[in-house]
Amino acid sequence: MSAQISPIEAIVADIRAGKMVILVDDEHRENEGDFVIAAEFVTAEHINFMAKYGRGLICLT
């Protein structure tokens, strides 16, 4: 499976539009991804999705 890495401008636009994105770090670092969504758009469904598929800490600021 081939994953597409989007340009930062597209990611910022998606976050501003209320979309959830996955931010990934370098494959030579931790090689992990984090779900990110702007706090003003978060719903219970988003939190449940993160808890089910992210399996880590959920932080809101």
TrEMBL record:
Its EC number is 4.1.99.12. Keywords: Hydrolase, Lyase, Metal-binding, Riboflavin biosynthesis. One of its GO terms (biological process) is riboflavin biosynthetic process. One of its GO terms (cellular component) is cytosol. It comes from the Bacteria. Pathway: Cofactor biosynthesis; riboflavin biosynthesis; 2-hydroxy-3-oxobutyl phosphate from D-ribulose 5-phosphate: step 1/1. Gene3D superfamilies: DHBP synthase. GO terms for molecular function: 3,4-dihydroxy-2-butanone-4-phosphate synthase activity; GTP cyclohydrolase II activity; metal ion binding. Catalyzes the conversion of D-ribulose 5-phosphate to formate and 3,4-dihydroxy-2-butanone 4-phosphate. This is 3,4-dihydroxy-2-butanone 4-phosphate synthase.
